[in-house]
Amino acid sequence: MPPPYERLVFVCTNRRPEGASRPSCANRGGEALRDAFKKELAARGLHTAVRATASGCLDACEQGPSVVVYPDDVWYGHVTLDDVKEIVEEHVIGGRPVERLRMRMEEKGPRRLAPVLR
Predict the structure, then answer these.
(1) Helix and strand tally (H, E) in the chain?
(2) Model pTM score
(3) Mean of the pLDDT values across residues 93-117?
């Protein structure tokens, strides 16, 4: 059976308690981002081919809210509501990742996030 979706857009909605040692994506707008992706995909008639869904912690907290597009394995950081249309238009529809939002992964050693310039 083929996968039910061409792409999955995972939006971190992990919530940590106030005062936690690390930030959390929910406290930075992750839930609103997930809703915005769902609305944008539906408005473009893509909701049957692309699924936007909540994710638990993606362990990229300092760069959150975090968004991951699969099967492309593209990670985005510091995503805002203003970025949703661009990600859908450029990446989901056009197949071109939005480089200014893309997280960079270090090549050596354990997979760790390199700083994002923004």
Answers:
(1) 2, 6
(2) 0.85
(3) 72
